[in-house]
Amino acid sequence: MELRVLLLLLLCFPGLQAQIPDAEERQLEGSTLYIHCPYTAYAEHEHQKAWCRTGERRCEPLVETTYPTQSPYINQARRGKVTLEDDPVRKTVSITMTNLQAEDSGTYYCAYRSYSYRYLPLKIISLNVFKELHKWELDSFSVQCKYSALVRSTDIKVWCRRGQTACKIWLRTDDPSTRTNSKDLADRGLIQDDTHERTVTITMEKLQAQDTGVYWCALYRDFRPTRIMEVRLSVSKRTQQYTAKKSGNVSVQCAYSAPDYGAVSKAWCKEGDDRKACTILVTTNSKPSGYGRTPQEGRVTIQDDTQQGIVTITMEKLQAQDSGVYWCALYEHGQLLRMVEVMLSISEILAGTTLSGTAGTSQATPSGDAPALSSNVNTFVILSGVLSIVFILALISLITLCVRRRKQLKRRGNRQAEHTYDKPEDIAQLDSTERMESPKDDSKDLKYVTLNFKSRPIPEDPLYCNIEPSQAHRKPKDEDVEYAIIALKQLPTNDKG
Fold it and tell me: What does pTM read for this prediction?
């Protein structure tokens, strides 16, 4: 019943065909569309199937079967990038459109051909093929919108930004004196209509992150825009991140296209807490109107190398309140257009410089403090000092050991020369000692000494030595040798000196 009512409406009022879609399909350029249209038994055998694109009042078939489907075989037709398959078993027409482009946007329907050779819709589709653009700040883009031959050359074409309830017009072809009626796009947008090629060209320059959004190239009829093509624009910021030491300096470099912006004034400004305004601190030309005194005045300098396309900002004697978000920006016509966003953090003690960002981040090292190099030098000095102290202590310990060892050896030699052992079966420790006296009579061969030892219970193997009594005072002509037999293990020394 509903299908019959819809068919009657479409037949009696063909202009309603584009106003009553059964479904809306949104597809990115280059993607593929798949549509399935079921039908009743009435259209099963005796009718041809087609995929149409609607014009003002009629169906323009893109592809259709050449003969009615004979069950149970699938009837297939193909033309260009569109394929149609009619499956009588499932009673379904399937359409495939590949490599979609923005100009494919429009209203389509699956249809069967009646006995009166009119195309009757099975399912109406509103197809929106959109462009997707990814840009950086200060980039430009240009898009072309092709419109139908049914569109008059005198029709107004517009470029509008899609909101929740309406599309706000930014550019229009009937207002050539002003390139834009939007303050946000002052001198940054242009629309041109080539009526011979039936193409509208939109150009946007000096893009900013706030330009991100959904746009329509549209016809302006009945005081409202009707979409020709949709563009989804994404604009990303270039960012730098710095950490600097309090009372130190920091230097920031921002690159730009020298041919495009070399002659434009540059500015350095600081964002407010609300992130809605940026207070100008310094510019490359004379002070702008309304330029007030700031806490950074006298501590900020700016230099612009228009040949290389690099603007350099230096901030000196940094304070804690200098932390915040800054812009390197173009400054023209009293407006700021951000080139690079800089996030600056001021710390009491700087352990190192943080430099980070996402794709598109401009990487530069602050030249004011060179904190990373300073950190490496400090580490090297500390390590060298520790190693020097360790070396000196090791040298002192070695010398001390050598002196002590020499004294031990000297005392041990004297004791072995002065003592004899009385009982070979015992380990003895000297209890009392009688020194050998100097011989008064050189004619005697031997001298005897009696020694008393404390005996130790552990027997040890005897140790034999032949020594010369160097302690005995003799004349050089006396070459007689005195012998002593000592049987003991090396006695433990009692170091007192």
Answer: 0.61
Q: Residue 61, exposed/middle/buried by CB under 10 A (0-12, 13-18, 19+)?
A: middle
In a domain, 132, yes or no: no
Same domain, yes or no: 345 and 392? no
Cross-strand pairs, 229: 217
Residue 159 placed within a domain: yes
pLDDT tops 80 at residue 404 = yes
Length of the chain equals 497
272-289, pLDDT tens digit by residue?
Answer: 888 778 999 999 986 554
Q: Do 304 and 363 belong to one domain?
A: yes
pLDDT per residue as tens digits for the range 462-483? 555 555 555 445 444 455 555 5
Q: Which domain holds residue 430?
A: 419-497
Number of domains in the chain: 5
> Predicted confidence band at 175 (pLDDT cuts at 50, 70, 90)?
confident
Judge contact between 204 and 147, C-beta under 8 A: no
The helix (H) or strand (E) run that includes residue 200 is strand 199-204
**Rounded-to-integer distance, Cα 122 and Cα 6, Å:** 10
Please report the sign of the dihedral spanned by the C-alpha atoms of residue 407, residue 408, residue 409, residue 412: positive
Under a CB-based contact definition with an 8 Å cutoff, are residues 277 and 259 in contact? no
Specify the amino acid at residue 99.
N
Rounded to 5°, the CA angle 362-368-370 comes to 80
